[in-house]
Write a structure and sequence with these properties.
151 residues, alpha/beta
């Protein structure tokens, strides 16, 4: 599985102008299931994501994780959005190939599993809609953007 993670001051997902998910300070997680991924990879990725120390401590160093934000009076939200295009392979030319992405049914199952596990482990979780045409708005904080991948 892959996730592009952005530390945000706020983020929201719109579908046809309707707000379907919104967080204040926290992490925007663009999530991609790859062929062969199982709940084992989803669990590893979620564990890494929740422990990722990319929020500033009192000394200004990136030393806090999203779950530590509650101690700062912030919610520390997660906004999880399906993003199969993270599987793009452009090595063969200018048109991306997405053959490494999980099939839609498998991708949906892993996305739903990841979201359910996130909700059971973390208090504030919002989502987009799997497979929908979404507009994602965000204020990137830093900016801090990282690619996470687990095998």
């Amino acid at each position: 599985m892959k996730a592009l993670v952005q530390r945000v001051r706020c983020a929201q997902v719109l579908i046809e102008g309707q707000d379907v998910g919104r967080i204040d300070a926290g992490l925007l997680v663009l999530l991609c299931a790859l062929q062969g991924d199982t709940p084992v990879q989803a669990d590893k990725l979620l564990s890494k994501l929740l422990k990722l120390r990319i929020f500033s401590d009192d000394a200004g160093k990136m030393n806090r994780c999203v779950q530590d934000l509650d101690g700062q009076g912030l919610r520390g939200g997660l906004l999880i959005v399906s993003q199969f295009t993270l599987a793009a392979d452009t090595s063969g030319g200018n048109r991306p190939s997405f053959t490494q992405a999980a099939a839609p049914e498998a991708g949906r199952r892993l996305y739903d599993y990841f979201v359910a596990q996130a909700r059971s482990s973390h208090g504030s979780v919002q989502t987009g809609v799997f497979g929908a045409d979404m507009q994602v708005h965000l204020v990137n904080d830093g900016p801090v953007t990282l690619m996470l991948e687990v095998a």
